[in-house]
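Late entry, evening session. Most of the bench is empty. Finally got around to the prediction I had been postponing all week. Sequence below, unchanged from the version circulated by S.P.
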Amino acid sequence: MKRKVLCTVFILFARIVSIYSETGLNAQGGTNPAAADADITESSASSGSFIHQIDFFLTFEPMFILNTEAGTKSAPSPVVYPLTVGVSWPDYYFVSFQPRLSLFYNYYLWDSDEEMALPAEVENRTATVFSFLFTFPAVFSFHLTDRGTLEAEAGVSMLVRFGILSSGVSSSDSGTSGTAADDTSLINKWFWTNGRMMYLSGGAAWLYSFTDTIKAGPDVRFYLPLGSLAEGRGLDAMMLSAGIKLVL
């Protein structure tokens, strides 16, 4: 009998200690399962909201590159056909950030007399140059009608270029600086000096909303070469493009 009474007292004491401990933790800001679930739900909603505010877009537009040195050695101002992809965040706001990347290539030669790289025609090419144009614009959207939006943008761009010997050109072929390999090396160095990779950019687009998620319309852009302007070569290497922008 005494043993049963002791067991009952021990169990009651243990239960009291357990209840006191749970109450103390809650009073001191301990873990609240309901609050934790609410925090997780709020965090997931916030992450989902950020993702849903991102639009992806493509542009299809030929690009004209001004060559003020066009003559007997170099090619006329070339026209290239970039592949451009980008994102817009946040969507449906007056001001958004729309970084994009444009990929294209063209041919170059080295002019030892002027000590500069020049666009080249196929028969005079030394290097095939791959170009990666990174653009970081702020875009202002004017929703003029229920389905029509006018976009105006301004930003900065960086043109990253590297050249390799063109197909059919041997590294030992003669070049204006020695060999074709020497010319290619000088072309690559020239791209990275005197700020030639930096541009100021601007543009405009008119987009029509075909559905809640798909928009498209004409798009025009320009890129002012800071390196050429600083060197006193005016607008040489300025780029202009016009085409279609597709927002998905």
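Two things to note before I forget:
Helices lie at 2-27, 33-52, 180-191, 226-231.
The first strand starts at residue 55 and ends at 60.
Will write this up properly tomorrow.
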